[in-house]
Amino acid sequence: MKRIHAGLVVAVTGGAAGIGREIAHQFAAAGARVCIGDLSGHDARVTARQLPGTVHGCELDVTDERSFHSFLATTEALLGPVDVLVNNAGVMWVGAFDSEPDTATARMIAVNLHGVIRGVRLVAPGMRARKRGHIVTIASAASRLSPPGEATYAATKHGVLGYLTAVREELRGTGVQLSVIMPGVVDTELAVGTATGAAKLLDPTDVARAVIDVIERPRFEVSLPAYVGPLVHLAGLLPQRLRDLALRRAVPDQVAATRSSAARTAYENRVLREPDA
Description:
With 277 residues, this protein is of the alpha/beta class. 49% of the residues lie in helices and 14% in strands. Strand 4, helix 4 and strand 5 form a beta-alpha-beta unit.
């Protein structure tokens, strides 16, 4: 692994488990100094102790301005100015659009969209002043696609891509890089019970490697698997009827996939009952 990451100060939201944990692990193994934030400060600290190198764990609620500001201030006090922010925190409710609880709608917008906006707004000005920095956001293939059963989730991910597209242009020439990682279904608790469609099931390490790679070779959009992005663009050139047929063959119907899934219900009951980062 290249040592370009050695000494970097990296802040990871939603870092106690799943994709966030693996991102923190790979950065720390590459010599970066890492601070992971999670709604459970206890879980974040436990994870930090289990990872190699210099890793700290902090409580972080990405839906709360003061909490996010405190997380970034703590990271800077412990490790120095943030070189890389990874917006990873996310939640997902799956089901028919007209049975989605309003609490689920509000929670996804607050975490998946506003949490990203908040992180960018808080960290980018300091990076711009230092003329360097990289903000990596873990979005989703749903930023380009809209699987049945993930209407609001897809809307938040479309919103993330739209927001970052505009901010990237505002930051052009400042030395601050923005990247959006758009994976398909990843083997994490967030995706429990869902189907992968035509794409393979990804592992958190696949996403973490993409984050490491995009720091080495900065680019704005990264699709996982890599062929998904070009296929979506090609599908967009087809007439609507043919596009619909092609996407119905490739994109899973998550309403059908998650119907009667006890594991899915347990996850959603937990993330709706209490804030989740």
